Amino acid sequence: MSTLSGRLRALPSGHVTLGIALAALGFLVAAQLRSEGPRVRYTTQERSPLVETALELQRNQDALKSRILDLNKQIRDVQVSGQGNAAIVTQLNDELENARVAAGLVALEGPGLVLELNDSAVPVPSGATEADYIVTGQDIRTVVDALWQAGAEAMAVNGERVTAVTAIADIGGSILVNYAYLAPPYQVTAIGPKGLYERLTAVPSFAELVRTRADGFGISIGFAEPQKVVVPAYAGAVTLREARAEPTPTPASPGGSSSPGGP
To answer: Which of 35, 62, 64, 173 has the greatest number of CB atoms lying within 10 Å of its CB?
Structure first.
């Protein structure tokens, strides 16, 4: 022991400090990799259908943005030309407002419900996957899709408005919705017709979610039906671009030339 102590005292203090720091860093990296592993594998399995859904929703949102841009242009044309009347301007403004509502750019309030999802309080059994006992992006996507099917007209997740281009994905220990990182509990607020919760429970995907996630792993799924539900406007960036038709390519002639006057 005295020999080892003598060797340690013989080392420069900077080497000892560096060795301790490197050992601590290695421990932290290993712990982080172990905690991230299950969720990374989980989200990788969901990436393909998520990308396909996001592309389809992006096309829908682009169409809405193009409509908003077109209506804005029509209103400006009428106002500048002075040839329109108040009725035409009012009609165009009404159409513009409807398009903005459909795109999620206007805050709404009305009857509906609030669903709350929280991580399981059940201890994770030995050998089980920890990711099965926490709320995931797939769980939130299932609830959102089921609410649309049940007739919901607008919704938000922890105050983030769900639009046609909203991405819901697992990122580290949180869920990304639009550009916001959210942590549990997750409240899904929805505006819809009377009896929205009864409609929701009749949607097969939601019933399956309750059976597998709530009953199977203890994920908490609660709901409330307040008299008035408020859904905020989408707060992310919206870039409107003019839509232009692609030029039709001139078919090549049998001689290989695409020019109309070519040989």
So the answer is: 64
